[in-house]
Design brief:
Number of helices: 7
Protein name: NADH dehydrogenase (Ubiquinone) 24 kDa subunit
Oligomer: single chain
CATH architecture of the largest domain: 3-Layer(aba) Sandwich
Family: Belongs to the complex I 24 kDa subunit family.
Binding site for [2Fe-2S] cluster: 85, 90, 126, 130
Strand order of the largest sheet: 2-3-1-4-5
CATH topology of the largest domain: Glutaredoxin
Order of helices and strands: HHHHEHHEEEEH
Number of domains: 2
Distance between the termini: 20 Å
Cofactor: [2Fe-2S] cluster
Helix content: 40-55%
CATH superfamily of the largest domain: Glutaredoxin
Keywords: 2Fe-2S, Iron, Iron-sulfur, Metal-binding, Ubiquinone
Length: 160
């Protein structure tokens, strides 16, 4: 993923390269959106016209897919992305209290980033870790049976 110091031209070049790699594949939109987010951390709204033209879709169709799926971001995330599982098992085991604790500690809501750019908070609707509910994912690492003190430690590490 490109870091926060990467010039916009590099981001545009990455998006152009990914479009060229995907545009002739059947059903290219979802794999392309995933590739863009995997490479730069989000799907910039400014790229929708370029994507729509390459895939012969309307800008509204591209926008609709990006906004329908909670996985896709339309803005650059913080240095760390914390996802709190909101699936039934995690809710039954206390994820709602964990979510409230995270929002209070970070002083943000879902889909927001802390003022120090350390953490972006997102909801996720299953991490596949139900036996260890409640679960949280920080970047690509899944943590199970997360308590408020465990969450505090993850936040402290993200801010370090």
């Amino acid at each position: 993923m490109l870091d926060s110091n990467t010039p916009l031209e590099d981001t545009d070049a990455v998006i152009s390269r990914l479009i060229a790699e995907h545009q002739h594949r059947p059903g290219a939109l979802m794999p392309l959106l995933h590739a863009i987010q995997d490479n730069i951390g989000y799907v910039p709204e400014a790229a929708y016209p370029q994507i729509s033209k390459a895939l012969a879709l309307s800008v509204a169709e591209v926008h609709g897919v990006v906004t329908f799926y909670h996985h896709f971001r339309t803005h650059k995330p913080g240095r760390n992305v914390m996802q709190i599982c909101r699936a039934e098992s995690c809710q039954a085991m206390g994820s709602e209290a964990l979510e409230a604790h995270a929002k209070k500690c970070l002083n943000i809501d879902y889909h927001q980033t802390t003022a120090d750019d350390a953490v972006t908070l997102e909801a996720v609707y299953c991490l596949g870790n139900c036996a260890l509910s409640p679960s949280v994912m920080m970047n690509d690492e899944i943590y199970g049976r997360v308590s408020p003190s465990d969450l505090d430690a993850l936040i402290a590490e993200a801010r370090a």
